[in-house]
Amino acid sequence: xxxxxxxxxxxxxxxxxxxxxxxxxxxxxxxxxxxxxxxxxxxxxxxxxxxxxxxxxxxxxxxxxxxxxxxxxxxxxxxxxxxxxxxxxxxxxxxxxxxxxxxxxxxxxxxxxxxxxxxxxxxxxxxxxxxxxxxxxxxxxxxxxxxxxxxxxxxxxxxxxxxxxxxxxxxxxxxxxxxxxxxxxxxxxxxxxxxxxx
Length: 198
Hints:
This protein is an alpha/beta fold.
């Protein structure tokens, strides 16, 4: 496994269970059903899975043998208890905001390719912690870098539950983004916002 750090980030203690095994509040080692369902629909030219908010790597499990896996999160290097294989894994300690501002590609340009044409970008409940403005900027960043395959499993704008202040709503009044994604519910309150090259 390769690991690189852009900088150290602070985060709330609540998020510890995403990185460390905790019997009282485990994140688990089972990938989200959305990935199991959609794996067969990913175009054959995709060779890299980029997971922003990768936590303990559970969502890399369906891809760990056949794809390059690149994870981004806030935990320090060497800190995460990985549940996926790490042979094909590269981990960046880097926030979504720094990633989309090209800071990571400038700082670590030798290691991180900017062209995303053969990548699938995936998030699981991570974009909901990014402002709607930055959510929109994130989508623009991916499209500007030739990304044709995106799966965001996030709380939808109409969600009214306990995390209702944290939803995925990248200025939905912009029709270009609203039309870009198919929406499909898999489990719980999250919805899959899916854009796959057909």
